[in-house]
Amino acid sequence: MESVILMHTSLLSFALRCHRDDLQYVNSVLESAAAILSKGHEISDTATVRAIVKLLTKPLESYKDVCTVLELSGYPAVASSLKFATAKAMAIEVINAILNSGTIISEVVQVEKLFSFIRILVDKNESPPDEEFDEEEVEEEQMLVSK
Questions:
Q1: In degrees to the nearest 10, what's the CA dihedral of 89, 91, 96, 101?
Q2: Cα–Cα distance, 130 to 24 (Å, whole number)
Q3: What does the alpha-carbon distance between residue 64 and residue 41 come to, in Å, rounded to a whole number?
Q4: Distance CA 37, CA 80 (A)
Q5: Rounded CA separation 22/68 (Å)
Q6: What is residue 128's predicted lDDT score, i.e. its pLDDT?
Q7: Mean pLDDT along residues 139-145
Q8: In the chain, N or C terminus with fewer CB closer than 10 Å?
Q9: Per-domain residue ranges of the chain
Q10: Residue 32: pLDDT above 80?
Q11: Counting runs of H as helices and runs of E as strands, what totals does the chain give?
Q12: By CB neighbour count within 10 A (0-12 exposed, 13-18 middle, 19+ buried), where does 75 fall?
């Protein structure tokens, strides 16, 4: 599985380099990866998880405007394959990308897409039942989201 995701990461890098302004190419690669990941394969090995995170990080690095990344329907589809802790880390990565780029999100649709993606940080019902509740960590995450 790792090699397939790494191949998608290479294709995504190519699409971002050669067709950066045509989101269709970028989204096609992400949707293809999401389709493979959704076939019920258990993603438990750390190498595959790292490959998925790398795949999700490429668009954040390429498009300084996170709203562009959130327009990619394949992006949350790939992210949905991550387990709780890694999905939470990716949500924090998206928030940090917004803060670092100074992106202002003013349209309701964009805010809805953002909150849908970072829901894991703001909705305690998203955490697995066996997850230990760390009040300090939740407070830090809430402060990050509020910025």
A1: 140
A2: 39
A3: 32
A4: 9
A5: 11
A6: 63
A7: 70
A8: C
A9: 2-146
A10: yes
A11: 9, 0
A12: buried
